[in-house]
Amino acid sequence: MSSQVDAPPPSGSPRGTIVFFHPDLGIGGAERLVVDAAVGLQERGHHVVIFTNHCDPSHCFDECRDGTLDVRVRGASLVPMSIFNRLTILCAILRHFHLLLQITLSGELQHLEPRAFVVDQLSAGLPLLRFLSPDAPILFYCHFPDLLLAQGRQSLLKRLYRVPFDWIEEWSMGFAQAVAVNSEFTKGVVARTWPRLQEKVDTKVVYPCVDTTKQDEFPGENVALGEGDHKIILSINRFERKKDIGLAVKAFAAIPEAKRKAVRLVLAGGYDHRVAENVEYHAELEQLASSLSLRHHTVTTFDASSLSSIPSDASVLFLLSIPNSVKTSLLRTARLLVYTPSNEHFGIVPLEAMLARVPVLAANTGGPVETIRDSKTGWLRNPDDVNAWSSVMSDVLSMPDADLRRMGADGEERVRSLFGRDNMALRLEKSIDEILSKKHARPSLVIPIGVIVSVLLAVLAVCMHFS
Question: Above 80 in pLDDT, residue 299?
Answer without folding.
Answer: yes
